[in-house]
Amino acid sequence: MKRFLLLGMFPVMVLAAGGPHDVVVKQGSATLTHADVDTVIRRLPEAERAKTMGDPKTLERTLNNMLLARQLADEARANGLDKDPAFIAEMRWLTEEKLAAARSEQISREIEQSVPDMQALAKEKYMADKAAFATKEVRDVRHILIGTKDGRSDAEAEALARKIHAEAVAAPDKFIDLVKANSDDPSKTQNDGAMPDATSPQFDPTFAGAVRKLAKVGDISEPVKTPWGYHIIKLERLSPARQRSFDEVKDGLVTDLRETYLKERKREYMDKLRNNKIEAEPETIGALRSRYDGKMPDAPAESARQP
Fold first, then answer.
1. CATH classification of 137-240 is 3.10.50.40, yes or no?
2. Where are the domains positioned within the chain?
3. Cα–Cα distance, 65 to 59 (Å, whole number)
């Protein structure tokens, strides 16, 4: 399908200058002004506007889409679609939704201007429950699983696990090679037997208990039996639990408290509107349940006239 290559016809600079009603580009019945383009670009997040529209291909695509939309809209008006009562009613409610969204954003900005200093509250929260800001101990391990598969008995699995354990202790730097060669854990192809945070609740209690007994990085456990078979576990990393200082958590605390304040004030404002007295006849509300059982009611022509 043929289309105009706008960037070859109009320099990008034309969008950066001129009054709001100056014409940027024309195609068929469609004319776009700076005000039209501004309206579309305003929908983009502010931080992304310059970057997005600075890309020639994005700019061309945007203008082409706008020209197509305007030509179709011109045809719709020529065919009287803008006078259709259902269309007018829909646009009326779309205006309500857009105004509601704009007011909601305005309320958020107004609340942001009233946010108190959260430093003192953050310190108070920290001091009230310092334990909540402590890091837990984290133990990352690597393991070899010897299961009972292909007719291997439990005794045979244990004997093989003890043999591999002896090899691992004799050459701990070869542990990954032993994983690749012997482990029955299918995930070894992706992680070479690695298991991060191996004492977390997701792990089998017996397995996690054996991990906790490893005193220092590099220690290798005796074969440990779980429902999956026998594990030989090597401690790869140990991060001790510690209490984080207030300075370490302050910024995150302040951010969380600020966001909570904004959400609560916004909710209070909306709840105040929701709690305004509702006036309605029960019979009228009840009739809505059957109003849409059959054919959709026609939009009234007077909906074009706003009170």
1. yes
2. 6-83, 137-240
3. 10
